[in-house]
Amino acid sequence: MKKAIMFLMLLLGVVTAEAGEPYGDYVCRYIVENGRYHEIYNPIKITHYGIQVKNTNAGTKIWKANYQGPIRLTNRGGSERFHNFYLTNQRVEFSISDRPCASYNGKKYYIINFDGQWQLAEAI
Question: Could you give the C-alpha distances from 31 to 17, 55, 100, in angstroms and in order?
């Protein structure tokens, strides 16, 4: 009985310690440049095979992406866990925060770093 309880506690610890899956549908709402927020609307779909971005100006872009695992980014405000991808065709990195952690106008957003450009996104 003790072994079963220990196993369940260990399993619960592993499940809660694991990062959330980065795969899913998001909408980029803002691009952050020099402390200014520019409103946008770009739906993004992150799958095991790549990243699809729908942009009304340029149509739909699909990038093949290799998942490189979770990373931790740190700044003055603390640190956050991100999921890091390498876009093979573009030769750039794409990272998305593990959870909504940036607040703007009273709402929490995921942070996306696309080749050095910071964006705020929400899950849909």
Answer: 30, 14, 15
pLDDT digit string (tens) for 98-109? Answer: 999 999 999 999
- Six-digit token pair at 30? 């803002």
As a whole number of Å, the CA-based R_g of the chain is 17
Residue 44, token pair as written in the block: 């993004």
DSSP per-residue codes, 62-124: EEEEEEEEEEEEEETTEEEEEEEEEETTTTEEEEEESS--EEETTEEEEEEEETTEEEEEEE-
Distance CA 63, CA 72 (A): 24
Q: What is the pTM of this model?
A: 0.79
d(CA 82, CA 94): 10
- Taking only the tens place, the pLDDT of each residue in 53-86 is 987 677 888 899 999 999 998 877 788 999 999 9
